[in-house]
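Lecture notes, part 5. Sequence design as translation. It can be helpful to think of inverse folding as translation between two languages: the language of shapes and the language of residues. The source text, in structure tokens, appears below.
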């Protein structure tokens, strides 16, 4: 289906100024009301509680979105055979990320990566060899925004994921596909800050989105994202891409439920 005159619609919900949830869509004019209703309901019935403020922002996209194919999704079938440290160590090696830097980024995310020890609204941006953080505001971080998946591609994703499909996963793999498409990014690590959602992921350039069950203990209200980058970065262009360039996923890849060893040996 041809999709002209597209609108970005974003929801942000908070209570006593503290962020509870956020989500966004890219839709045609005729889809705006339905999408606004769905996003409002998501805000109202979020596991983190009732908001006292819901902000819905609707704007016409100034430029057409770039179409991308969704990353392939992997789920570690034998997760229970390993500690989280073993899994992250193997995956950081696979991603060419210095393991001690990777593990220290993971620890920052699960303890609150802002200088105040709170959850950041955006992502840490980390040089993969030095560990230097490059986001201009270390309280806020860099937020990937303006992305969605077409209804046709979402249907395909539901088919390949089956019972493993969740709304959180869909939003996350769409976001990660945008993030990994930037030439400087080699990987993205994510731990949800929702205390009940304990599945996270590491996406690796050239491989895909690797879902990691029990990436954190249940009940922990901490988490966040980290973008691992190569040593050189045009910061202005990077922020413009992450925060302002629209991306629309129009095709999906595969969903693999496989042992860790086969993910590590894949290319
Ligand atoms: C979030 O809460 O924003 C992160 C969701 C991570 C989803 C991981 C998955 O289920 O694949």
């Amino acid at each position: 289906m041809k999709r002209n005159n597209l609108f970005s619609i974003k929801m942000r919900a908070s209570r006593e100024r503290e962020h509870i949830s956020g989500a966004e869509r890219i839709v045609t004019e005729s889809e705006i009301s339905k999408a606004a209703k769905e996003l409002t309901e998501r805000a109202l019935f979020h596991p983190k509680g009732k908001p006292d403020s819901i902000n819905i922002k609707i704007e016409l996209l100034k430029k057409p979105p770039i179409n991308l194919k969704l990353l392939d999704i992997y789920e570690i079938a034998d997760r229970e055979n390993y500690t989280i440290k073993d899994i992250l160590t193997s995956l950081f090696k696979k991603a060419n990320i210095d393991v001690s830097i990777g593990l220290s980024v993971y620890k920052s995310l699960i303890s609150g990566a802002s200088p105040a020890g709170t959850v950041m609204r955006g992502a840490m941006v980390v040089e993969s060899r030095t560990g230097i953080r490059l986001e201009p505001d270390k309280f806020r971080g860099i937020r990937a925004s303006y992305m969605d998946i077409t209804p046709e591609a979402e249907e395909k994703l539901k088919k390949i994921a089956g019972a493993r499909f969740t709304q959180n996963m869909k939003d996350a793999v769409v976001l990660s596909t945008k993030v990994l498409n930037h030439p400087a990014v080699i990987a993205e690590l994510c731990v949800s800050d929702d205390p009940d959602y304990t599945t996270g992921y590491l996406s690796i350039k050239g491989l895909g989105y690797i879902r990691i069950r029990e990436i954190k203990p249940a009940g922990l209200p901490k988490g966040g994202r980290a973008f691992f980058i190569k040593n050189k970065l045009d910061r202005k262009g990077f922020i413009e891409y992450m925060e302002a360039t629209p991306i629309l996923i129009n095709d999906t890849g595969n969903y693999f439920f496989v042992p860790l060893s086969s993910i590590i040996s894949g290319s």
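The translated text above is only one of many valid answers, since several sequences can fold into similar shapes. Residues 167-180 form the longest helix (14 residues).
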